[in-house]
Write a structure and sequence with these properties.
Rossmann fold, 39% helix, five-stranded parallel β-sheet, alpha/beta, 2 domains, CBS-domain, 300 residues
Length: 300
């Protein structure tokens, strides 16, 4: 059984600490909270595996706290969090023994991967080495899924859950999925329902039908559009997902190169790909996952 990673989260902002704790624990980590440097030093006795340390804090700042942590536990990896205006300060922290640093707002997937790298040296990349798709993707266990027999209302309710924690703080980014995977009764992926599918579903058929020339002026009048959106939503809510879902996304082997994923997205006009290993769906890689990998490479 894999040992649960214990994280010491040090930040003076209560909302950020608590939101981060909830998300990290949802991903399987155990999180200890500290509100300042002195508090963090006391909680080192709880034997954390890694420290996430904000640089800007009143009193003992991140640099001073890092110095004291290294005196007590020289081998304990420390990941610094910094604002974009403090990059020189963050890079200086690397010289003083920090494992790495991440910018705020911080993408939660980058943060979790950095935590895993810090705690397991075998996960660290050598210079010039790229990560595989399985290291960048969203695991299928963390993606929104629903049975094909459910209704559109059920799908909207489920999809909304992926955005709930994303609005909690401006210092943490956990990107919503914007889509929900559709499965049959044996949990095989049969399709996908995206927000665009939902928007197309509420469009009345006559909007795309041929129309007389004079109808153009009526179509764009305020009266024409009145209450059309809410009416369309109410009419579609009980439709079965299987009737309206899009085909399953293109799949890619989890051992493939990230450039191959980018190529498939661009030339097939896809925003996400199913990731398979030995024929089994293990996750989803999205365009935003590739974007965050770009940022990570540029700042490494």
């Amino acid at each position: 059984m894999t040992k649960q990673i214990k994280i010491l989260m040090v930040d003076d902002e209560k909302r950020f600490r608590e939101t981060t704790q909830k998300i990290l624990e949802k991903k399987g980590f155990h999180t200890i909270l500290a509100e300042n440097g002195a508090d963090a030093l006391e909680k080192l006795e709880q034997e954390p595996d890694v420290v996430i340390l904000d640089i800007k804090m009143p009193g003992m700042d991140g640099h001073a706290t890092l110095k004291e942590i290294k005196k007590i536990k020289p081998d304990l990896p420390v990941i610094m969090l910094t604002g974009h205006g403090d990059l020189p300060s963050a890079r200086d922290a690397l010289v003083k023994g920090a494992f790495d640093y991440l910018n705020k707002p911080c993408d939660i997937n980058l943060l979790t991967e950095k935590i895993k790298e810090a705690c397991n040296p075998t996960n660290r990349l050598s210079d010039g080495e790229e990560r595989q798709i399985t290291a960048v993707m969203i695991p299928i266990s963390e993606y929104s899924v629903i049975n094909e027999k459910k209704t559109i209302k059920d799908a909207i309710d489920e999809l909304k859950k992926s955005f709930v924690t994303k609005m909690a703080t401006d210092q943490l980014m956990e990107t919503g999925h914007r889509s929900i995977l559709v499965q049959d009764k044996v949990n095989e992926v049969t399709g996908i329902l995206t927000i665009r599918d939902l928007l197309e579903l509420i469009m009345p058929a006559y909007l795309s039908a041929p129309k007389p020339f004079l109808a153009d002026s009526i179509e764009y009048s305020p009266m024409f559009w009145k209450e059309m959106f809410s009416s369309g939503i109410r009419q579609m809510k009980n439709k079965c997902i299987a009737e309206v879902m899009s085909p399953s996304p293109i799949s890619i082997d989890g051992r493939s190169n990230l450039m191959e994923a980018a190529y498939l997205m661009i030339y097939n006009n896809e925003r996400r790909l199913l990731v398979k290993v030995s024929g089994r769906v293990v996750g989803m890689i999205r365009e935003q996952d590739l974007f965050f990998e770009m940022e990570k490479i540029l700042n490494s």
